[in-house]
Amino acid sequence: MRQPQVAAVRHGRKGNDVVVLVIGGAGYIGSHAARALRRAGHEVIIFDNLSTGYEFLATGFELVKGDVLDAAALGRVLPRSDAVMHFAAHAYVGESVLNPKKYFHNNVEGGLSLLNAALAAGVKKIIFSSTCAVYGEPAKVPMEENTPRQPVNPYGVSKLFFEQALESYDRAYGFRFASLRYFNAAGADESGEIGELHDPETHLIPLALGAAAGRAPELQVFGSDYPTPDGTCIRDYVHVNDLADVHVKALDHLAAGRDSFAVNVGTGQGYSVQEVILEVERVTGRPVPRKIGPRRAGDPPMLVANPARAQALLQWKATRGLHDVVATAWNWMERSRGVAAK
Ligand code: UDP
User: Fold this and answer.
1) From ligand 1's centre to the CA of 203, what distance in Å?
2) Domain count along the chain
3) pLDDT at 16 (0 to 100)
4) Alpha-carbon span 203 to 184, nearest angstrom
5) Could you say which residues of the chain have pLDDT below 50?
6) What is the spatial distance between Cα 140 and Cα 61, in angstroms, rounded to a whole number?
């Protein structure tokens, strides 16, 4: 395994910073992670096909435009890299049910293309954006990492496949990986320069903020008859910069020569849809026009992380709560109007 110092010499740099190839670094979470890596003193190369990412989110970084299925393009950048972070995946549960082909093509075939290109280049440290969707419908909440992995939609299946591919490549080829099982990523960088930008937007917090601002239709609340205290679904919303920080810690862990691992990345605190709406109203000072609608297929009543392992292994703990999530998302929405024009 190449040591970080090798790269430092190769690039004429001092110190033990690592060159990280951030696949999907022009996307929502990847762009926050790229900045966190740079703050920690690492060098970043962003590789993104800009299918859902935005060039301006990669401003200030080396951006290589390419697709994970393009082994030749990967083969040109991997030799300059010490580690890979893989954010480039499709991530809509509902869409994966309707169009599994798209999900298996990008997330599975594309993922394997990346792994094999990394293997060929001898880059054996990889940090992977996994998801709590690998667990499916958990019998017990908060969820621990030993919850059986039984995904209930093609998105979760595609992510579980990649986790298991990493496990196989670890045993066979000495890969060292981190599978970071995200709960609900939300919020935006405190600077207001980067944030969530999905098209179409399907996520609760931007839709509720948009409804409050009068820039989106009234919010549909997907079900109020769940077995939860107020009848709406409970989720664990983790701030994107806390998420970004766990990637840096995971990288440091692997760069120190330690073993592969999988951890939940959540706060340990769940909020119902109703509670999120109230927070949006507090932050914006405006009501959220809303209507109770039917349940959305595939939504478990409650998904909350037990984040103890991430704390024990990486000394990582979310430092931001729901208020920070909503306030930074609102700040981003206010500052970014019109910025999405590609
Ligand atoms: N949700 C909702 N209305 C919307 C979008 C989402 O009621 O327009 C609910 C959804 O049913 C879930 C929670 O908000 O319980 C979070 O959904 P989101 O799509 O933000 O994230 P997911 O949990 O699907 O990753």
Assistant:
1) 6
2) 1
3) 62
4) 9
5) 1-14, 341-342
6) 42
